[in-house]
Specification:
- The structure holds 2 protein chains of 2 kinds.
- By secondary structure, chain A is of the alpha/beta class.
- In chain A, the strands form 2 sheets. Chain A has a 6-stranded mixed beta sheet, with helices on both faces. In chain A, strands 2-1-4-5 form a 4-stranded antiparallel beta sheet.
- The N and C termini of chain A lie close together (11 Å).
- By secondary structure, chain B is mainly alpha-helical.
- In chain B, helix 4 runs antiparallel to helix 5.
- The longest helix of chain B has 29 residues.
- The chains are: A alpha/beta, B mainly alpha.
- At the A-B interface, strand 6 and helix 3 of A face helix 8 and helix 9 of B.
Chain lengths: 280, 285
């Protein structure tokens, strides 16, 4: 039995020593969480998102990806472990992290407009305070990024599934946080729209934001993410995408035999030789 | 009805009619504003439950010679907070929590009253509403309570909306979502009590649900639903008051039936609008 968790910690220490200037946007150590009086949905999860990195979180349904996100932003109590956002505990870093839930978490029947939804991403507890010019400008910019500006006045519940995901992404972007946690933003999107969204995430990362994105799309992680984390209640493997997304790791993550290569075609995922500190 | 203006204004030569109208106007506004949240959070059952639960407070206050309105306010608030707490702690669904607490409070009210051998009209007026018994003090109290509700909604409108349509993300964003949800339950409790004296326990929920539902058929955004709901409630109140004055009908059921008629009318308007929309294709909105 290998211990990828420990290996990842080592990898991180290596990174920290070679790049002392690189701070972690997100630093999760030994995290266990779930529902009360039930076995934890995730156990001993240790992972990190370096500043300015796009990290993909993959794992089968029920692997605990959503629970991990919810634990990070304080929606689930931590049974064990620690979460730091830019070196700070969550309570002092609320404004630094923006969370995009799965679309099913939102009550779409509530009578709010598309613009209302994006604006609420800007909300802090400010009694009697309306939206500032900055709030509006940022919200419109986010709407334009996801190509929903033309629907701004429409009722949010009238949007299609794919548009709802883009709307939630816009709201998350509008919050203006340095760290973004995105729970399945690509689910149910067609290839073209997904391509657009990945380009948006790339642009955000290039602008210095850090992103952890949960997805079922392995090729997207392989092609676009700096690092990948494979989760199935525990971290199965974590590190550079090319090193992590091997047949062996994916089989263990998804508990079945998966071929990460396109049959007959060129390899979609390059399997890197074992490097010290990444995969065994 | 040779003189329509006279028909409209004659009843208000009596002070009790002017007070009734003032009380109904206040009720219309506060019910529509709170009702917009109630209808779209699926809490219609809660309004009814809070109204029935006030019987416990009304009964205890009545038996002990205390302020009946205050008793109602305490009972409704306790029940509203109890619903929130039960739902959170016992991990039961909202309608189950509401169903349990409201029968508990209602039973308590009936139990307290059963120790008294005689009902009095004063008590019955809370059950069926007593529009003509509204005093100046009742109107002032209703106005103050309503002002507090409206001030709260204005102050925290954007936070309340966020916590309503996406409580998880609102919480993750650092908003005190739990406190906001409890506050919303309390607002509903206050709205129920404001309307209680006028409309009565049995029908008070109608004033919260029907105008907001009618406005939701016709309007899309929450502020528009609130404003239109208030207007529709006011129309139902005035028409209901007039009809009950001239035809000697019980006031609160008349108002409620007029409100229901407006709802049916709104459905008709929407159907016509949609038909016109289809026939008018390829025009877009």
């Amino acid at each position: 039995m290998i211990e990828p968790v420990r290996e990842h910690v080592d990898a991180r220490e290596v990174l920290a020593s070679t790049h002392p200037h690189r701070a972690y946007a997100l630093d999760v150590r030994g995290l266990s969480a779930g529902y009360p009086r039930q076995p934890p949905a995730i156990e001993g999860v240790t992972l990190a998102v370096a500043e300015g990195e796009l990290v993909g979180l993959v794992g089968p349904n029920g692997a605990g990806k959503s629970t991990l996100f919810k634990a990070i932003v304080g929606l689930r109590p931590l049974a064990a472990g620690e979460v730091r956002v830019f070196g700070q505990p969550l309570a002092r870093a609320r404004d630094d992290v923006a969370y995009m839930p799965q679309v099913e978490e939102v009550e779409w029947a509530f009578p709010v407009s598309v613009l209302d939804v994006v604006l609420s991403g800007r909300r802090r507890l400010l009694p009697f305070r309306g939206w500032s010019a900055v709030d509006r400008a940022v919200a419109w910019d986010a709407l334009e990024r996801v190509h929903l500006a033309q629907y701004a006045r429409r009722q949010a519940g009238q949007l299609s599934g794919g548009e709802r995901r883009r709307l939630l992404l816009a709201r998350t972007i509008a919050r203006g946080s340095r760290l973004l946690l995105l729970d399945e933003p690509f689910a149910g999107l067609d290839a073209a729209v997904q391509h657009d969204l990945v380009a948006i995430l790339d642009a955000l990362v290039h602008a210095g934001r850090s992103i952890l994105v949960a997805t079922h799309d392995l090729s997207c992680v392989a092609n676009s993410c700096d690092e990948a984390v494979c989760l199935n209640r525990r971290v199965i493997a974590a590190g550079p995408s090319s090193a992590v997304l091997t047949e062996e790791v994916l089989s263990r993550t998804f508990e079945r035999h998966l071929l990460p290569l396109t049959p007959g075609g060129p390899p979609r995922i390059a399997v890197a030789p074992p490097a010290s500190g990444s995969q065994p | 009805m040779s003189d329509p203006l006279g028909w409209l204004l004659d009843p208000y030569t009596f002070e009790f009619m002017r007070l009734a109208l003032a009380a109904l106007a206040i009720t219309s506004v506060v019910s529509a504003v709170v009702g917009a949240f109630v209808v779209h959070k699926g809490l219609a059952f809660l309004g009814d439950a809070l109204a029935h639960a006030t019987l416990a407070g009304v009964a205890i206050a009545f038996v002990n010679g205390l302020s009946i309105s205050l008793g109602a306010l305490v009972a409704a608030s306790v029940t509203a907070l109890g619903v929130g707490w039960t739902q959170r702690r016992a991990r039961v669904s909202a309608d189950t929590a509401i169903g349990i607490l409201f029968v508990a409070m209602f039973s308590l009210g009936v139990l307290v009253l059963s120790r008294r051998t005689s009902y009095t009209p004063n008590l019955l007026s809370f059950v069926f509403g007593d529009i003509l018994g509204v005093s100046r003090g009742d109107v002032v109290a209703a106005a103050l309570l309503s002002a507090a509700v409206l001030l709260f909604v204005v102050a925290l409108y954007r936070e309340l909306v966020f916590a309503s349509y996406d409580p998880a993300t609102a919480t993750a964003s650092g908003l005190p979502t739990t406190a906001l949800q409890y506050a919303l339950l309390l607002l509903i409790a206050v709205a129920v009590v404001v309307s209680l004296r006028v409309i009565g326990i049995i029908l008070v929920n109608a004033m919260i649900v029907i105008p907001a539902a009618t406005a939701s058929v016709l309007a899309q955004r929450l502020p528009a639903i609130m404003a239109l709901g208030a207007l529709l409630a006011l129309v139902a109140s005035v028409v209901g008051l007039q009809l009950s004055y001239y035809f000697e009908l019980a006031t609160s059921p008349t108002i409620v039936l007029v409100a229901c008629a407006l709802f049916a009318g709104a459905l008709g308007v929407r159907a016509l609008r949609e038909r016109a929309h289809i026939e008018g294709a390829p025009q877009t909105t």
